[in-house]
Amino acid sequence: MTYQPNSPEARDIAYHLHGYTNARRHDEVGPLVIDHGEGIHVVDIHGNRYIEAMAGLWSVALGFSEKRLVDAATKQLSKLPFYHSFTHKSHGTIIDLAEKLVTIAPVPMSKVFFTNSGSEANDTAMKLIWYRSNALGQPQKKKIISRLRGYHGVTIASASLTGLPNNHRSFDLPIAGVLHTGSPHYWKEHRPDESEEDFATRLASELDQLIQAEGPDTIAAFIGEPVMGAGGVVVPPRTYWQKVQAVLKKYDILLIADEVICGFGRTGKMFGSETYGIEPDMMTLSKQLSSSYLPISALMINDRVFQPIADESNKIGTLGHGFTAGGHPVPAAVALETIKIIEERGLVAHAAEVGARLQTGLRRLTDHPLVGEVRGVGLIAAIELVADAAKRSALDPVGKLGTLVNGILQKNGVISRNMGDALAFCPPLIITAAEVDDLLARIARSLDEAR
Ligand code: PLP
After folding, report:
1. How many domains are contained in the chain?
2. What SUPFAM superfamilies does this protein's entry cite (predicted)?
3. Which atom of ligand 1 is nearest the CA belonging to 117?
4. Based on CB atoms within 10 Å of each CB, which residue in 50, 249, 355, 423 is the most buried?
């Protein structure tokens, strides 16, 4: 693509290195430069309007123009623009938020540690698990099991937990001590004639075998997203989590629920853990926590995790971990207001209701020749695009069809995201029934244009 000299696109190409972008081809594909947002829509610098069907990055729960969040940030900025949580310091906003999170947690939680991104929250979880094992006199109990296709972030530790090849290749990851077990992607990974139930049983048994092979007393924790997001919106079989938790209990292995995408209503309940009967020892939260208006994340831990950590910090003299902006008052104020709005407007029930409409509408596309499977729950969904539905086979190379349909959708006023050939939809929780219908019509039209 060629752009006017000094245009925003030309300057973006000149100066800006983008994550999750082919750095060599950025000029060819060209940047989509967004100017402003209105509800579930964003508008680019040329005036083109898009349904933001990914809520940015699975995250803008309240849409792109929620004035109350702006007011909450401004009010906090004027009152106390920064304070921190080191060396026994605190402030009212972070105390309120910590209390609120513990109150709404789906299982009893003891404490909240604040961080700035999902990656940092998961990184912190891993460090505190190691710290706890040392505190308990179990220095060999350090390994963490995550899953292929899982996504937990991009720091050295959290990228290691991530189970996607692009996050490891050429980065010399994963680090030692992180193990990956199979993903609950039934459509892609079940054996011929294997039911969903049998598939879940096999995954739990493979997990058990991995633990046995490594030595149960070397495994400290298991981490998983209730529904995998970036791995292609992988909705687990109904009994999967129940079976996995039975294995973890058997070997006294901690469970971390990565609720960075699922938290705050995405799956039609406040937390994905509620949707799937997960009882985590630790939970990581971010994204919809502040509707992504400002960066904030959190790690919640139960008493079983907290008490040994408290003992160890007492022995050493301090808990040697913390981020300058962890517990920053301004994103904390936005987070408190986000949760208040979600509760006041009944947006969790709303997500379940309009989510059902989205899921039903997308499943009507199952007969389309380019559709292999539609999956999802609440307001998170994916269409698995295929060249040959009968054979569940992709166009060569994998991702070509996904990129094609994603491009057509953009032309038709929808921002979606393709992970290979899985085309994801994860709109803001405030989407209305009429907007869901508008989105569905544009998806159907785009699929037809791709044939
Ligand atoms: N965990 C999950 C489930 C995510 O989807 C993400 C980001 O997409 C992360 C962790 C990492 O969050 P961040 O990008 O804020 O570091």
Report:
1. 2
2. PLP-dependent transferases
3. 15
4. 423
